[in-house]
Amino acid sequence: MSLMGIDVGTTGCKAVVFDEEGRQLAAAYREYPLLSPRPGWCEIDSKQVLELTRECVREACSQTDDPVKALAVSSQGEAVTPVGAGGEILSNSIVSSCPRTADLVPVWEKRFGKKELFRKTGIPVASCFTPLRLEWIRDNDRETFDRAEKFLFFEDLVIWALGLEPTTDSSEACRSMSTDIRTGQYAKDLFDSIGLDTAKLPRIEPSGTPIGKIPSAKAEEWGLPPGTVAVTGGHDQPTAALGVGVIEEGQACYGIGTVECVTSVFNEPLLSDRMLEYNLCCYNHTYPDRYVSLVYNFTGGSLFRWYRDVFGRAETRDAERTGRDVYDLLTAQIPPTPTRIFVLPQFTSTGTPYFDNHSTGALVGLSLDTTRGEIIRAVLEGITYEIAMCVDLYAEIGHPVKEFRCSGGGAKSEAWMQIKADILNAEIKVPAVSEAGCLGMAMLAGTAVGVYADLEEAVKTTVRITRSFSPTPKHAALYKENLAVYRDLYPTIKDLAHRISALR
Known about the structure:
This protein is α/β, with parallel strands linked by helices. The chain folds into two domains: 2-244, ATPase, nucleotide binding domain (Nucleotidyltransferase, domain 5), CATH 3.30.420.40; 297-400 and 487-503, Nucleotidyltransferase, domain 5 (2-Layer Sandwich). The protein has helices at residues 46-62, 104-112, 114-121, 130-140, 142-147, 154-161, 170-175, 188-192, 216-221, 236-243, 273-277, 302-311, 313-322, 326-331, 372-396, 414-424, 436-448, 455-462, 473-503; strands at 2-8, 12-18, 24-31, 43-44, 68-75, 80-84, 93-94, 148-153, 167-169, 203-205, 210-213, 229-235, 251-256, 260-266, 283-284, 291-297, 342-344, 362-364, 403-407, 428-431, 465-469. Strand 2 and strand 3 (24-31) form a beta hairpin. Helix 12 (302-311) packs across helix 13 (313-322).
């Protein structure tokens, strides 16, 4: 008997099968493009996402003879898909980094009050959140808004496609700025203000709640064994935190994927004015009676992928020819010591703490003797500087991060892990399973069907730390100097970046 975790991200989906000890038995991954129907806009084709997710599930199931007993779905936050009464998908889904709803932020702050919204939802209002997206659809695509029978997050979109009632979990719903953090139910007044009946949103249950057995016809279509149980999953970041065993205050999961994100755990909701000042959210963990807060950079690992696609074509060809990982071929070129080159990773909306939809990326500090390897290293450094600057905010509010555990594809790179340890000047622990989000889903699924007595047992059974990276003192000292410069980079070029953005 095995357990499956499905993850539907911003640029790719995966399905991973684990045994009861948390050992990976099979996996499949598919990538899909970000679409830009207008300059700067970002969306994905929900039909394609479902098709590729189904392919992943079928492929992963075909790789093992151990039948899947239960599954759960982790997904990107905030993005919703409109579904018609006949089950048709009505339009693409707007993803988190898309800035098209930026002008609605002051509207919502005036309508409800910035502080009042935060105290109710635990979420500082920003352009990415679901109620603002739905208002934008109402005002710019009224036909879709009126025709939609449901607006589904990707977690419950998959559940719906599996033939069950679309059901989301508390972490996904709260992260979307859609619920009252104290009651866990939809904040009806938010949706009343845009004329949307909350009955058009998915049912909410705690993470790890059994939804039902997948109907036989759907199980066959998806390559699953008869009787597979679907279980509520979670928003991708707290899901990954669960998957690396980050369940206690002071611990944090460093997720290294399309979006770079540090998920810090709290024992109770933190809704202070200082949290709001720094745009730090607070919402449900996928582990019971815990809460999480995020600091993140929307560009994140997408920046390394951008470099790969634009400047790493030779390495891409070599990787295809030799079977090696293209990112290993790129990082093999980096110098062994820190650079004095600064990359501002704001190629999309900025994320915390600025929530600036009009900034732009920058590469500063070049000279005629700058090497290609230095630029590659500077890309990795810049992404990490941004996160290090944000992590310091937790110390300022009195809840410092004491332990980092990494998840995501980037955690496979020893070169990048060492850079992160040096910049953060902290030990970075890497569990055996890099696909932590999928493992977290397998834990929830297994607990729901009695494989584990509870999630605490699931964590103890499945999470194993296999690598650890300690800071190199000399490099950490150099990075401390660099970080002081980096802190001034965005404030210094902010106005110029906005002028450049306006030219577009």
